Every structure is written in structure tokens, then in C-alpha cells.
Amino acid sequence: MKILARLTLSALIVLSLLAATDLTGQWSLELKPDFSGNDDNIGCSFLQKDDKLTINCGAGPNIAGEVHGRAVTFVVKTGRSDEFSVTFSGELDQKETTIDGTWKLTDNVGTRQGKFTATKISGPK
Predict the structure, then answer these.
(1) Long-range contacts made by residues 62-69, C-beta under 8 angstroms, separation at least 24?
(2) What CATH code is carried by the domain that includes residue 56?
(3) Which of 26, 30, 40, 106 could form a disulfide with 121 if both were Cys (CB 3.0 to 4.6 A apart)?
(4) Is the pTM for the entire model greater than 0.90?
(5) What domain range is 48 assigned to?
């Protein structure tokens, strides 16, 4: 009986760890600094399907990303012809309401980087 209880408890723990994270909702993206060297805050909507993430911030094009466990990555195209990529890499907190991480951009000026925090404002509508 004790073995069955332990197996059941172990199965529940594994299932809770495998439960799908859903980042869908409205988020506030704080850049420290932004690509121009200034701190900025942008409102964004996140839509998650399986491990794929689609982000839209303002009037810009959709941004593609991925979620693997607590690791969140997304790439923003920038430059006159979208010839450069900014890679965002962050980690989702346990409450699934904050992503803290770093961004890195390499362009014809050189390499720039900074930190970001995304905070969930509301869930799916």
C-alpha cells in the first residue's frame, strides 16, 4: 500500500511539472535599456500554442518565440530592411507572471545588449 501511495504521489509531481505553461495574455515589456540606449516600456500581447509563442507589441509585426519549460526565447527583427536580429532569452518565474532575461543585438555598429523584464498584466481575453 505504501508503494502504491508513493507511486501515485510521484506521478502527480511529474504531471504537475509537465503541466503546460500558458503565457497567453497582455504583458508589459520593460527594456533596460532599449536598442537606442534608453529605458523603455512597451505593451505587448502574447499568444502561446504548444511551445510556440507569438508576440505583438504595438503596430509592429508579429514576433516569433518559443517556450521550453521555464526558458523563454524570442527574436525581434530590426534595421531598415529587418536585416538584424535581437535575441531575447529569459526565464519565467514560478508564478508564471514575470520573465527576466537579457537581449543581444549585433549590427553594423557592433554588439549591444541589455536586460528586460516582462510582467503579465492579464490573462486571455
Answers:
(1) 67/21, 67/23, 67/92, 69/21
(2) 2.40.128.120
(3) 26
(4) no
(5) 21-122
